[in-house]
Amino acid sequence: MEQQWSAAPVVKGAACLSCKGICSGFLPHSWRKACTQCGCSVEDHGPSSDLEDDHKMGRLLADSKYVHLTAKVKGVRVYKRNRMVITNPVVSRKDPTFNTITYDWAPPGLTQKLLMRQLPVYDQDPSQCHRPLSEDELQAMSVFMKTYKEEALGVGEVALPGEGGAHPPPTVHCSGCGELAPLDSPVVYAEWAGYDKQWHATCFVCSECGEALVDLVYYWREGELLCGRHYCQRTRPRCSGCDELIFCEDYKKGADGRAWHHDHYCCWRCGQSLDSPCSCPLNTQPQAC
């Protein structure tokens, strides 16, 4: 039996922040990550709480080289909420080292809504998927998460360019925009990119969606910074119906290249397969979210 997808942390009946006055309150679909009243996404109906975000981040960083940014509380990994780490790179050696202190600063525009979108909880927690995964799917998901934690997941580090080095560079250029980075303004370093690269804080964004990377959590793939969402769906197919990653080999691939669980390849309104035209008006709801 298909389980009801957990709409938490969004409260049932929460007002939509996108189509104000139209939606009568959040009413979750059984598997779409959207409201059945207005069709807007879960994150459009209110942000998650700090505690819920801390648990999500704690789970993500557990078993990674960034576990020191978490603390164990009642047996559960919780993010310490150090919004950014400022560091003083010692660049006089071949491999720079970092003296780390807490620095409570973050690029503008980082919101809980971005966190929900960039790091979907169901990308890392199988219990948040719309149905129980099979043993094969659970194994594939476990291997996938282990691999990206070892090979791609990173947390940006902030430092003043050239600080701490015996021979600081005369000029520093941002790896994002290419413009000069003032030596008295912090830049962001990404360990996977190498410490010869640095970004303005506002340029430390996902190369696909252009959004500022929440809490400086990034994924490194083929020379690019990515948010969790876009790294994952470059590596695994993502269902265009339920928004979850697909960990089985048997799935539907649409003519437009999008992927679907077989039972999710259907009209939003009537549930009829998208291979068969239905009479639902296209201007009221998307046929596929």
Which geometry do the CA atoms define? globular
Indicate the structural class: alpha+beta
Task: Report the total helices.
Answer: 4
Oligomer: single chain
Mean pLDDT: 77
Identify low-pLDDT runs: 1-8, 82-110, 283-289
**Largest sheet descriptor:** 4 strands, mixed
Name the CATH superfamily assignment of the largest domain.
Cysteine Rich Protein
Predict the CATH topology of the largest domain. Answer: Cysteine Rich Protein
State the strand order across the main sheet. Answer: 4-3-6-7
The number of domains: 3
CA distance, first residue to last residue: 23 Å
Specify the CATH class of the largest domain.
Mainly Beta
Q: What does the radius of gyration come to?
A: 21 Å
- Number of separate strands: 11
What is the chain-wise order of helices and strands?
HEEEEHHEEEEEHEE
Can you tell me the CATH architecture of the largest domain? Ribbon
Helical content band = 10-25%
Q: Which range does the strand content fall in?
A: 5-15%
Essential attributes:
single chain; about 290 residues; four-stranded mixed sheet; disordered C terminus; alpha+beta; disordered N terminus; three-stranded antiparallel sheet; 3 domains; about 15% helix; Cysteine Rich Protein; globular
Task: Summarize the model shown.
With 289 residues, this protein is an alpha+beta fold. It is built from 4 helices and 11 strands.
Tell me what the structure shows:
The protein has 289 residues and is α+β, with helices and mostly antiparallel strands. It has helices at residues 50-61, 112-118, 135-151, 228-235, and strands spanning 70-73, 76-79, 85-90, 97-102, 153-155, 157-159, 187-189, 217-221, 224-226, 252-253, 259-260. 15% of the residues lie in helices and 14% in strands. The protein has 3 domains: 1-46, no CATH class; 83-249, Cysteine Rich Protein, CATH 2.10.110.10; 250-289, no CATH class. A hairpin with a 2-residue loop joins strand 8 (217-221) and strand 9 (224-226). The chain contains 4 helices and 11 strands; from the N terminus they run H-E-E-E-E-H-H-E-E-E-E-E-H-E-E. The longest helix is centred in the middle third of the chain and has 17 residues, at 135-151. Residues 1-8, 82-110 and 283-289 have low confidence and may be disordered.
